[in-house]
Amino acid sequence: MIQAKRQITLNESLGADIYRLSIQAPEIAATAQAGQFIMVKTGVGFDPLLRRPFSIHQTEGDEIQILFKRLGKGTTLLSKLAAGQQLDILGPLGNAFTLQEGPCCLIGGGMGVAPLLFLAQTMRSRGITPHILLGARNKAELMAFLPAFQALDGSLRYATDDGSMGQRGFIIEALPALLAEDNKAKWQVYSCGPYPMMRAVAAICQHKWPCQVSMETMMACGISACLGCTITARNTNRKGGKYLHVCQDGPVFAAEQIEWKS
Amino acid sequence: MNDNNQDLRVDIGGGLKLNNPVMTASGTFGYGREFESFTELDSLGAIVVKGISLRPRPGNPPPRIVETACGMLNAIGLENVGLEAFIKDKLPYLKGHKCPLIVNILGDSIEEYRHLAAGLDQEEGISAIELNISCPNVKKGGVAFGSQPDLARELTTTVRQATSLPLIVKLSPNVSDIGAMARAAETGGANAVSLINTLIGMAIDIRLKKPVLANITGGLSGPAIKPVALRMVWQAADAVHIPVIGIGGISTWQDAMEFIMAGASAIQVGTANFFNPAAVDEIQAGIRRYMRENNINQLHTLIGAARGGK
Ligand SMILES: Cc1cc2nc3c(=O)[nH]c(=O)nc-3n(C[C@H](O)[C@H](O)[C@H](O)COP(=O)(O)OP(=O)(O)OC[C@H]3O[C@@H](n4cnc5c(N)ncnc54)[C@H](O)[C@@H]3O)c2cc1C
Ligand SMILES: Cc1cc2nc3c(=O)[nH]c(=O)nc-3n(C[C@H](O)[C@H](O)[C@H](O)COP(=O)(O)O)c2cc1C
Ligand code: FES
User: Fold this and answer.
1) N or C, where is chain A less crowded by C-beta within 10 Å?
2) Atom of ligand 1 nearest to the CA of A18
């Protein structure tokens, strides 16, 4: 784990307010695993005060890459940085997806697709061909991240909320059909995306297939010091509570560990 | 980093001398280990660990934190592993380091504080106890110990009798007369006071039309509270003769020097550890550089330097 100022080698706008940003970070690139994240200081000074968490999208040689959407103050500052500038980063943080035997399905929506590219690449390097399902709001958003997934060979399906590209509707609707194609197989399902999507994936997989989800919360530190990044667990822990810390116990959890809110 | 010409040692009372004035604030530095990749734990002035209660506490439901302008609100709810697990799982690691260890404690009742202090008194490797009095007293209908001088004095007196370790009372800023609270701690037998804990605040999500934090209110910390903290440290230093430890928004060495010049014998770094895990080392290095550049050999000569002899 390192904290250091490192050089940005690429910050490219992909349309739909989505960017990919590469950083020269050999220490992180060498050890990072799919599902892990970094904390980024998006500006100098005290506003925004806290670092922002981003999943590792992919690594290449000495570089790591994040995929982010411009939402508020921090990501707007990040979108304005250029190759050659320095970025204060902290990572790699958190646990990783666990690779298991069996046919694999990766299902992601919006910026949740970020860690799934790294996961799919890891699987390909181990001879596993994942089935990938991707959802986006519209064509512009989908086209921001789809090409990177198309570069992997494998089965790829996608949907947009407005039907401007691919199937119309939520990609989750395609999941039961895919899993039914081989009903006897021990599917491994991996998901990252909006909360309602992961909740629906968890419900489909419940009692049938193992499912790993990557969760989001507000984070102040990323290194299990603030205890602020909690989500509610299904079972009671040894402190007598039902809390999981996303930066420490996650961000990847087995779907059945989580108490899904309606 | 050792530079023989600069003497950063400070005395924080009860016979406890620190090699330098930079400590970590409770609840912002975990149990030390979380920061071993980023800081030189051995060269810290002292480590103050996350507040410990008699039994483990699960903490509050999420969301627990939210960022605000130059600050953050937290309602962690004092989640901690409890005394037994602290002694078994956390203390051995901390004992292996050279810097003094200060254990922050909290309770629902005077009895709970007394048990904690007595329990820690038995352990080796603890340099002092810091009493977090910003907790609700369950028996007195949930009024914070730190909000009434009488309660704070009674609590301090009881804990004082339960331990021979140096005792620091950590004051809440959510009071009208901070001087009176500092005096209550001094009268109760505290060796030092530390301040400030967080200021109570809140944030509302206008899209959902409800408070952001599940707890509704939370404690404000970070650079946003520094001016308030500095003012209170100044007033506390006026009110008592025991050492004052400054806390609140300290993020740079310049911030630390302001508190020292206001009358603080030492300082604690809190929220800054979150966004800059090397903050404590950088602050210590900055103080050394300032002293070197200004030909100051002994840091303690700067304590209260802005007070004009008062
Ligand atoms: C483990 C983890 C991995 C993440 N990976 C990615 C990623 O790969 N790509 C990506 O684009 N985003 C990712 N996020 C979300 C990203 O951290 C937030 O979008 C970012 O912090 C927003 O910062 P901001 O200053 O632009 O927004 P702010 O001005 O802080 O807020 C703008 C909006 O974003 C929401 N927001 C702020 N912080 C978070 C947060 N931590 N999680 C969720 N929503 C938040 C706010 O509620 C608000 O609605 C991840 C979050 C976590 C916890
Ligand atoms: C997330 C968080 C947890 C905290 N937990 C404790 C605690 O357990 N005990 C305590 O006495 N103070 C606790 N504090 C208060 C800090 O120690 C400190 O007094 C306060 O945050 C002001 O300093 P700062 O602005 O430098 O953070 C906590 C603060 C934060 C932000
Ligand atoms: S973000 Fe601070 S403990 Fe997880």
Assistant:
1) C
2) 11
